[in-house]
Structures are given as structure tokens and as C-alpha cells.
Amino acid sequence: QQQVKQSPQSLIVQKGGIPIINCAYENTAFDYFPWYQQFPGKGPALLIAIRPDVSEKKEGRFTISFNKSAKQFSLHIMDSQPGDSATYFCAARFSSGSARQLTFGSGTQLTVLP
Amino acid sequence: NAGVTQTPKFQVLKTGQSMTLQCAQDMNHEYMSWYRQDPGMGLRLIHYSVGAGITDQGEVPNGYNVSRSTTEDFPLRLLSAAPSQTSVYFCASSFGDSSTDTQYFGPGTRLTVL
Q1: With an 8 Å Cβ cutoff, are A101 and B103 in contact?
Q2: Interchain proximity B103–A6, CB inside 8 Å
Q3: Ramachandran area for residue B40 (φ above 0: left; ψ -120 to 50: alpha; else beta)
Q4: What is the pLDDT of residues B41-94, one digit of tens each?
Q5: With an 8 Å Cβ cutoff, are B42 and A89 in contact?
Q6: How far is B47 from chain A, CA to nearest CA, in Å?
Q7: Where are the beta strands (DSSP E) in A1-114?
């Protein structure tokens, strides 16, 4: 059972556009919501993350919006650039004692056209 | 500081063969994890470890074994390879901090089982 649903599967925008990637989760026990960026042939790298007691977090051109009541969160990329072309994964963490497990969404392949 | 290293980068196996994927980190991280990445399915957790001598199963553990004899190393063993195990495998490590918990991923091993 997929606990984190991500959409869209792919996204194409022009340079300067604002792509938005959405994720929805089911488990209200998730306590940390990171976004990872992956370039072809590389491992994912943390981009930005948010905790459920915060509704928005900005880091540079990247913003996470978090809606706890709707169990949804999204990534916005302001003034997108061709170098932002990559696959983006949302994730949600479940913690139990010392154990921590991340559940990932299915990924969004973003293409930013010059 | 090499971060998270994985070997080999590519591997082709025949059905029924066994092999070990190596993972090492030099950041003194307590937490280490193995994921598999398949098209359209994001990253799925196979096994994880919260410290030397402690391992646990993730979402898709069948057909894989792990051990953690040192803080630095976390090998993944395929006991009897099957075509369904064709995938890209990523190892990750983190401090396991409750507030941030950034996972650092290795470059991946692309495995093909014929």
C-alpha cells in the first residue's frame, strides 16, 4: 500500500515558470517531510524538508507548503532554471523509538525548457 | 571525506546466483539503509540499521539479507537472484537526528538479473 502519493508523474515548464509538485499522505504519525532531488545517474540529495508543525518553509527558490488537516504538502520552485531539470521525490518519515523509516513518493520528472 | 560509497556500479547476474552489494560511509553515521529504485515506484526501503549489530526489515525485504558488524559498512546480500530483483540499489546513511535526519545517498548500483 502506497502511503505517499505524488503527482504529477512528469512536468514540463518554461524557464522562469513555477512548477508545483504535490504529495498526499495517509499516516498521521509521519513526523518529517523531506524533498529529494535526483539527477540522472546520481543518488538522491536532500533539497528541503519541513516538520508538520510548520505550514511553509522557504530555502532560496524552493518552498514547501504543508497542510496538516488535508494531509498534503507541495514543492514550489520559483523562477525555475534548466539546471533544475531533475526527478523530485517527496517523502515522509515514521519514527518509532530509535527506528526511523522514510516512505517515498513515486517521483516527478521535471523538465525546464530554456 | 568520501561520503557514502557503493560497489560495484554495475552488475549482471544470472538467475539463482548470489552476490553482495557493498556500502560504506565515513561520516560516523549510526543509521544506514538500503533502497531499491524502480521506474514509477520511487525508492522502497529494503533493510535498515540503527547501529552496529542492529538491523531491521523495511518494506520489501524478501530475498535480501543484511548485517552491520561495523559502523562504517552495511552490505546487502542477494541470496538467489531473481529477474524481479533487477533494479537500481541505493545505500544511504544519516545521523538519525530526530529533528532533521538528512539522509546521504550513495551513487547506486545498477543490477540486472537475467
Answers
A1: no
A2: no
A3: left
A4: 889 999 999 999 999 999 999 999 999 999 999 999 999 999 999 999 999 999
A5: yes
A6: 10
A7: 4-7, 10-14, 20-25, 33-38, 45-50, 56-59, 62-67, 72-77, 86-96, 99-104, 108-113
